[in-house]
Amino acid sequence: MCQLPAAIPAELAEALRKFRSDPPPGWSYTQTTVAEGRSTVERYDATRPAFARWSLLQKDGRLPTPEELQAYAEQRSRWSRSGTAPGITDQLNPDSFELAEESDDRAVYHARLRPGDGGDRTAHYLRVTLVLHQPSQSIESVELASTGPFRPALGVRIESMRTVLRYQLPAADRPALPQSVTTSVRGRAFVFKSLDADMTVTYSDFARASK
């Protein structure tokens, strides 16, 4: 987690300390992904062994075939994950925070990203917008958006890039829980190939598996 300078309000520092982009451990949930005209509905069961927690409920609006269930199980046995939301807070530049607007119970902050590993040429062109719910000291939404067209690699031009993460506010019987992740990219590679893509991931039917 990023180390925030003393000038950052204490409630924002506390919200970022507690923040996690993916669902918290010990919770089961349903995850629905829609992208490029295709959809999948999956269930994550936190009560089951780690290698058997994911199950495929629907594929493209229908029940999956036995062959699809087998392929899904084989894929999951090789690739285990607990969420799809990207890890943003570790890349936040702690010296870049600025208050954009404030109301009685919410504050909106802008920040920049530090480049990640492996020659990251994208972070410089992105801005993060955080919405802080002040009464609960929790992050209500995170937007990661490009500030203009850019070229992250030879022959690639990104016109726009945007990811928005939204969260349910915490309550007495539960922590903050992810609600949705939406991503949108517009661009081209070597003029003739479109890089346009959209994806929406929604989370529902949360159930606590352990305290």
Kindly describe this structure.
- Strands 1, 2, 3, 4, 5, 6, 7, 8, 9, 10, 11 and 12 form a twelve-stranded antiparallel beta sheet that branches.
- The chain is globular and about 50 Å long.
- With 211 residues, it is mainly β.
- It has two domains: 135 residues, no CATH class; 52 residues, no CATH class.
- It is built from two helices and twelve strands, in the order H-E-E-E-H-E-E-E-E-E-E-E-E-E.
- 10% of the residues lie in helices and 45% in strands.
Structural topology:
Layout: H1 10-18, E1 27-35, E2 38-44, E3 54-59, H2 66-78, E4 98-102, E5 106-112, E6 126-133, E7 138-146, E8 150-153, E9 156-168, E10 177-189, E11 193-194, E12 197-208
Antiparallel strand pairs: 1-2, 1-12, 2-3, 4-5, 5-6, 6-7, 7-9, 8-9, 9-10, 10-11, 10-12
What structural keywords apply?
211 residues; mainly beta; 2 domains; twelve-stranded antiparallel β-sheet; 45% strand; globular; disordered N terminus
